[in-house]
TrEMBL record:
UniProt-listed Gene3D superfamilies: MFS general substrate transporter like domains
Main location: membrane
PANTHER family named in the record: MAJOR FACILITATOR SUPERFAMILY (MFS) PROFILE DOMAIN-CONTAINING PROTEIN (PTHR43791:SF41), PERMEASE-RELATED (PTHR43791)
Annotated source species: Penicillium angulare
Compartments it resides in: Membrane
PROSITE patterns noted in UniProt: MFS
Protein's name according to its UniProt entry: Major facilitator superfamily (MFS) profile domain-containing protein
Membrane association type: Multi-pass membrane protein
Signal peptide region: none
GO MF annotation terms: transmembrane transporter activity
Residue ranges crossing the lipid bilayer per the database entry: 79-100, 112-130, 142-161, 167-191, 203-225, 231-254, 303-327, 339-360, 367-387, 399-418, 430-448, 460-480
Keyword entries, A-Z: Membrane, Transmembrane, Transmembrane helix, Transport
Cellular-component GO terms for this entry: membrane
Amino acid sequence: MTEQEVAVVDFHSSQAEKQGISKNMDEAAEFLAHSASFVPLSPEEEKKMIRKTDWILLPMVSMSIDSFQNTGGLSSFKLFITATLGAVDKVAISTAAIYGLEDDLHLVGQQYSWAGSILFLGAIVGMWPSTYLVHRLPSAKYLSACSLGWSILSLLLPVSRNWGGLMALRLCMGCFEAIIVPSISLIIAGFYTKSEHPPRNALVFAAASSIVNGFLSWVVGHIPSTAPLAIWQYLFLITGSISTIWSVIALVFLPDSPMNAFFLTDREKYYAVQRLADNKTGITNRQWKWDQALEAVIDPKTWILFFFNIAINIPNGGLTTFSGIIINNLGFSPTNTSLLNMPTGVMSTMSAFCFSWVAAKWVNRRCLVTMMACVVPIVGAIMVYSLPRTNIGGQMVGIYLLYTYFGPYVVGISMAQANTAGNTKKSMQYSILYIGYAVGNLIGPQTFRANQAPAYTGGFIAMLACYCVCILLMAAYWAIAFTLNRQRIVGLDPSEEQVGADLVDAFADQTDFKQKTFTYIT
């Protein structure tokens, strides 16, 4: 038995002698204190446990967002499904536009742009109650309930008869969607160690929605014109139905943490929690702590990542709403446009996987990886902006390169997961970052002006500027994290008593500012 395992046993004994665990402690501390001792997992058993988690958990979260080394891939399929289906409902509007939505609803001027932006205005509004509720309620259940809400609203989109009706439904969808990224970030941070976050984020937040949406769009494109409904209405009916069914499944089975994961044995739950002690970020504590919320607000890292999320998602907002139109304007039919839009999801996913893998392997170089990743979409924006529109091949390559922006975004998510401790602080910071995501996506469609079609000069200039800003912001984050690490107390004697104290601190629900031995990932 290692020193850390001995310390955990001692920790259990001392805590069990007390009458419960303080409400200030993480729920993981109570779980360990009241769990029976188990024979330690062998390295092979630990790898098997991680593989099982990857094969069951990640796909659930993703479909309601890959595993690489030491993983087999199935637990990842449930987070993946949840996130992907939510995104399919959101991006379907781009395809609906090429199948007559604008004409049927009599949209003029910037009304279509606002139909894209309003979703994220709703997300900003919905984030405030969701920040509190996701902290007080089981995060997976709340995520699944919100998923069910936006799925039902997606089913109602076909009844829209004008711009006002479309806007009202999209606004409400945004309120439900607000919790996707914060809740999934909490779940991933509660199951995996810091080094395991980037590749799991890449799978969970993979842009499979564009692939799924492209395929479904191609399918509905073959519906005959004699059908009783418009093609775009069938698209929302299909995506909404699939999302609704999955949301009910996720509501029943998606776990919040290793402590209530149905696919883990009691022994595996015990060690799944214990192995997260080194993160020093905690797992779950449902007590809202205003001092931690304030710390999230005054932490400069929060605001650097907030503005990074705005800058990286301004291009996303424009591309999500206008990608189908941009490709269609190159002279392709609606059905071919749907097929040509599918590789955008492949590029986003490959970018997320590649840069996340590098970030996980290249220790303490995540900021540098993010900066390097921003260069690729810069090349894409330059190509689309500078090449003549008659150069169809070059234009398509440039458009596909634009979608590699997803790589730096996903690696940026892992920075917050690895460098934020304290459950209230995590909830607050993740919510602030998602507001940045929503603001960027709200602004993005407005950079594509109707009077600039088909070139959309303003949109592509905005993309170039945003990627450059992202590089500067990530350099600033690197400098701050490096400086904070230099100021930390180091060189503690790793005696058994100190190891035990570290374990207590790891699940004491303390913020990273208050943990003197907390080390920031750079």
